[in-house]
Amino acid sequence: MNNLINIFYSFLSQTEATRTAFQSWKTDFTAIHGFLDSQRKLDVVGLCATYQIDCSNQDDIFKLVFCLETYYTILLRLLAFKVVFKDIEITKQLFENDYFLQKGIENYACKAYFNWFLEIENIESELNTIEINKYLENSETDFIKEIFETVLPSPVRHAMGEFYTPDWLANFTIQTLTENDEFAHQKTYLDPTCGSGTFIFNVIKKFQQQSENQIFKQVFGIDLNHVSVLAGKTNYLILYAKCFEFSENIPLQIPIFYADAIQAKFENNNMFSDFISEYENITIPKVDYLVGNPPWVNWEYLPTNYKLRTAHLWQYYNLFAVKGLEAGFIKEDISVLLTYVALDKYLKDDGKLGFVVKETLFKSIKQGEGFRKFKIFPTNMAVNPYRVDDLTLFKPFKDVVNRTALLFIQKGEAVQYPTNYVVWQPLNGKRTFENNFDIKELSKYFEFVAKKAQPSDAQKHNSGWITVENENLDKTNLILGKSAYLARTGTFTGGANGIFWLNVLEKNNDCVTVQNITERAKNKMKIVKTDLETEFIFPFLTGNDLEFWQYSYSKYTLCPHTIESKMYPIDAKTLEKYPKTLQYFEDFKIELQDRKGFTTFDKHIQLANYYAIQRIGDYTFAPYKVAWRYICKDFRPAVIEYADDKYVGKKNIIPNEKIIFVGLHDRQEAYYLCGLLSSTLYRQTIESYMIGTQITPSIISRLNLPKFDKSNECHLKISELCKNGHFAESKDFFVSEIDNIVENMLIQIIHKTTLSLPQSLFLVE
Predict the structure, then answer these.
(1) Residues contacting residue 448 through CB under 8 Å, at least 6 positions apart
(2) Is residue 166 a contact partner of residue 133, using CB atoms and an 8 Å limit?
(3) Residues 583 and 518 in one domain
(4) Does the reported pTM lie above 0.85?
(5) Are 428 and 539 found together in one domain?
(6) DSSP reduced 3-state for 54
(7) Do 275 and 348 share a domain, yes or no?
(8) Which of 341, 371, 439, 547 has its CA 20 to 30 A from that of 499?
């Protein structure tokens, strides 16, 4: 293979025809995958060494990928030739698109620009060195995708965003989707983004014997990628050849087609009727089952032309739920749109869907709101997500870490909360599985934890889901509600940590000697050791400094803002009163002006005062902060108090952007809120709708957190227990006592609810 790739690469730029073929391919490739980021995602040096070529620019990387895909299409076609025509000698004529018509196969064709290699002199002798038989020795799994993963190195596949579904995962999805359907072998199936055809392959294998091979006529696949369509058709032919003879007297149209599942036109409930000329002209009736793994690509990363062509469909299906300023931060995924188009246009009204999707579609606060409406607009056809499997605790895809879930939907049925939510809990530490893993062995490696899922906000049916054990559902419902508190993010330097983060070395009269912290800073800065006034130097807390009910700091930060100025820094005239600090900023003026972290929302502040930082408010200077890490596997709150620092005196501690906090001015209130959030039920509830390790400011917005009441005995008890726990070596006793108070209050509320009395959390007897 490496030898052929080298030959291809060397020849590619030699003729006008091959250069034209490359440009045509590149246009199609970038329309699907965008432009490869050769600096960040690809090891260019390593790739060059592997194939003994020289890649001097990004276009050379594209040429290499074109050569790799060309080689892959050659392998696919040689496999197809082998199973259809048996023993044949490889000649150039084999690669003509109408060659398969001799055997009645109407639509096995490859995009013309992949035939550019036929111009290479004596190429047949090189092609005949390829050993094809070894690939056909074991066809019990979809080995086509394994060939793809062999031909295209992992970094290239990552840059392309190409990750094929392992057979065992496809099998589990199909089995779960069709369970309790004794006529599943008679039903129709479609994968609208079929890739190499893994789901189609496994549907055929599952029902082949039971359907007496009729299942070959009941499966369909489509894909927007020419190479994927060719792979899927090859996969189909390999299976078909084991059951049927090929003859021009018995025409075969392979039921896998090149099309865009999202943009297809429809008539009379048929799938496709009128494509632009480059698409295959096909008609497929609506199916009983939709299966597949739609692409996971955020809207912001889609090619611009594709965004423009599909923007109206997001509106048509009412999938962009957030409007105004917040819409700019939305990272909706193309799988959202694909799922709703598929449900609407391809699935029968009583059909079912089984897709591999992102877990964030269910739990994200700002993303997925349109997805979680579970109604197909504008007809308001209901769809019910009757089961979700959470696979986030292991790696279903060997080559990539992602937050995988399986979604099962019944069309024509209203959503019924709480819905079934199954968490796959790994046993024995096993985190990855081979493609041919037998799903009958799953129970040896996983505990399947049955939970229930429902919207975290009872007043908002499409809010992010909360997932809890069934026995805790009633208590969790009482914990969910409206928060009297608002959390904020710590300060952000806009890309200048190496300027604002400081080590204080010693006290020097009214100043301190400092040195900027440049280690681990993304943007490298010169190292400066100097004296600064203490007015704008504060003790500084980062995520690693915070644990459950405890914290410590070792760093300091420059914060040229005040409680009065908030998001605006002190003006230049005021800063002149602190000449050493002013000079320090002047020394870094160019770097501070060039920061990229400021957006259109606050760019004007930086333009007016180049030394500004971000995410500052009166809350930043609050004497008490109930804080937790932004990135953490579990919820660990603590109360941060004023510091009596040996260098800068009594100062407020300022957190960085990796800490989320509620700023408060009452010490008892701070410990009350922290104690309430620290109770086991509250922490479990928060962790049940965390997305991975992200614990955002909005995480508490869905909780019933009543305002602190000094007359409420329970509030005072929680505050005192939490405060004492902060200063105790062991925290368990104090958490347990707080748990007892919370449990008793919830029981009281449940009891009063049965008597139809008003509810109020932490009532005083």
Answers:
(1) 422, 423, 424, 425
(2) no
(3) yes
(4) no
(5) no
(6) coil
(7) yes
(8) 547
